[in-house]
Amino acid sequence: MFQITRIIKWLAIPVLLIASIFARYAAAYELTVNLVVCLGAVVCVRRAVQLKEYSWAAGFVAIAVVFSPLLLVDKIFLLMGLTCTATLITLIVQFRTHSVPADYSTEIL
Q1: Would you say residue 39 lies in a domain?
Q2: Is residue 107 domain-resident?
Q3: Is 78 a member of any domain?
Q4: 68-94, pLDDT tens digit by residue?
């Protein structure tokens, strides 16, 4: 099972990138191809989060945003917002206070 998941994960990136290359050449179907790439990336994000591989999920989120049918300005602000949110969550997790165990505080005194 793990081997199949690994193969699918490594094949998803080239498939999405190749589909994105040919999106411009499918003039009448450009929106459809972009939606397929975006939905493929969203499926990969969901799977990466289930496997707790958050760096892969972040990469697929970026692919999903870039190939979404939003305007360029919306994409830029969405990526900036996601980056700021991820930075804030990382800072909160790293700098939260931890309680000292009761037996450790009595040993020092």
Answers
A1: yes
A2: no
A3: no
A4: 888 888 888 888 998 899 899 888 888
20 in a domain, yes or no? yes
pTM as predicted: 0.60
Other Cβ atoms closer than 10 A to 81: 10
What residue has token string 């999920």? Answer: 57
DSSP 38-92: HHHHHHHHHHHHHTT-HHHHHHHHHHHHHTSSS-HHHHHHHHHHHHHHHHHHHHH
Token duo for residue 85 = 């949110």
Token output for 35:
């939606």
Q: How many structural domains does the chain have?
A: 1
Q: Are 58 and 85 in contact (CB under 8 A)?
A: no
In which domain, by residue range, is 57 found?
A: 2-69
